[in-house]
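Standup notes
- DV: blocked on the single-chain target, sequence here:
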Amino acid sequence: MKPDYRNWMPRGMIYAFGSGMLICCIAVTCFQLLSAGTLRTVLTITLSAAAVVFCGLTVWAVLMYRAFDYNGRRQMARQIIEGTAECVKLPEGGRVLDVGCGSGALAIAVGRRNPEADIIGIDRWGREYASFSRELCERNARAEGVTRISFQQGDAVHLDFPDETFDAVVSNYVYHNIPGRRQAYLLETLRTLKKGGTFALHDIFSKSKYGDMQAFVKKLREMGYQNVELIDTTDGRFMKKSEAAWMALSGSALLTGRK
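- DV (later): unblocked, structure below
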């Protein structure tokens, strides 16, 4: 049995964009049956423009799907997951929390590197990622031979764990999907970290999504966190800046450190 980590670009989105383009094209064709006039001209121009937009979005989504394909040529998703997992430092028998585990890829990658660790992955598994589920995570863990791992429903905004529960916390492309005070969500995750524990949180830390992250890094240091770094992952570590630009991933970085 092979693991199936799915794709971060949902196929449903590709189909939706493609369907929008097709519907617009059919509508433009139908409008040609109308008598010539202002209405037909306006409708034709409007829907033709919409068809072009949907076409562009379809192409973009397909290219994203190919780039994120875990077993494809580019394998960007695999590169991000493995690179983030490498940042985790654990004591023997440590506990790890993966916030927003999706299909289980990051939690399992950490588990493979740390077979004596206990891993917990949480996710809300919303409708926008309907192909991801707790059952899928469990199947993938079995396929990879990772046994000391469990998955459960959870909310990144209000984690159902006491303070200082875990020796490491990780996440990948999670918090930017949640509206609101994203720096506060990071602090909620770090709340569960034990003294001396490490964190590796990968996300789109752009100013438009998070505000001033350099000030946040300074705040963490003032709170007593050590070796706090915001590492740009668009400089070739996980992707090139040109890739990040067209994929709308500019600002991707790893927030790492120790409590």
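- Follow-up: The first strand starts at residue 95 and ends at 99.
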